[in-house]
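Here is one chain, start to finish.
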Amino acid sequence: MKRIILLSSLFFFSFTNTFSSHFMGGEITWECIKGGPNMGQYIFTMKVYRDCNGITFAQTSQTLTAHNYPTLGNQTPILLNFISITDISPTGTPGSGNACFTCANGDLGAVEEYIWRSDPTTLAGTPPAEGWHFTWGSCCRSSLLTQGMNDDDWTIRSVMYAYTDAS
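Its structure:
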């Protein structure tokens, strides 16, 4: 019996997925390195925003998926390293009637920004006309949403199209 309880506990606690029911939005950006030993490589940055009144995101590496790279229909993972969490809540002035929000208090209206960043990454070739799509997502949107799609999965996406820098 002890073995069954131990195995059940190990099974239950071995999963590390974070269900982010307080996801507010996010962005995926990249920068082309224009000099030095990593010239021509890209550094990807992902920022994700959450409502501080709910579940936190994992402070571990995440995987960005590159779609249509290196060719149409393919998917290539890009590892993103965890960088930081910052409380970006609106600030007010005590006594002015404008509320001060903080994530530390779990205030309704408080917002945190999570940042992940890749090491310099090589993307060989040119994006096709459809572009290279970079995505990251999770489950589940808040059950309390009133405009629909509550409890659904969500994804943030950015697309890189062919571009020639004039310089």
